[in-house]
Amino acid sequence: MRIRCPYCGERDNGEFSYLGDAAPRRPDGLEAQASAMHDYVYLRDNPAGEHRELWYHGAGCRSWLVVTRDTRTHTISDVSPARDVARSRRPGEAA
């Protein structure tokens, strides 16, 4: 699989580290209920189809990226800097 880094161009996925689902947002640790923290840490979906994931380009520009990938075919439809994705979110909105 090849990932098109917005800064370095198309690269082999061996240059990247996979973190996981890009959707979960960490609850405020001081105000969060124990159940909300439990869900954030332990509960993850395992979708078949298009999924937004966090990847780190450690062997390149060292940027965090949000990769939209079809988990059935590994076809990548979009790659965006994670910083841009985070800035585009409104408070309280999921990815």
SSE map:
Layout lengths: L1 E4 L3 E4 L4 E5 L12 H9 L7 E7 L7 E7 L5 E6 H7 L7
Antiparallel strand pairs: 1-2, 3-4, 4-5, 5-6
What does this structure look like?
- The protein is 17% helix and 35% strand.
- It has 95 residues and is of the alpha+beta class.
- The chain has a domain at 2-21 and 47-88: Folate-binding superfamily (Folate-binding fold, 2-Layer Sandwich).
- It has a four-stranded antiparallel beta sheet with strand order 3-4-5-6. Strands 1-2 form a two-stranded antiparallel ribbon.
- Strand 5 and strand 6 (76-81) form a beta hairpin.
Brief summary:
It comes from Methylobacterium planeticum. The protein has 95 residues and is of the alpha+beta class.
Q: What CATH architecture of the domain at 2-21 and 47-88 would you give? A: 2-Layer Sandwich
Order of helices and strands: EEEHEEEH
Contiguous low-pLDDT stretches (5 residues minimum) are: none
Structural classification: alpha+beta
Rg, rounded, reads 14 Å
Q: Which CATH top level class of the domain at 2-21 and 47-88 fits?
A: Alpha Beta
Largest sheet: 4 strands, antiparallel
State which percent range the strand residues make up. 25-35%
**Quaternary form:** single chain
Question: Helix count, per DSSP?
Answer: 2
The proportion of residues forming helix, as a percent range, comes to: 10-25%
GO molecular function, one term: sarcosine oxidase activity
GO biological process, one term: tetrahydrofolate metabolic process
Organism: Methylobacterium planeticum
Pfam families: SoxD
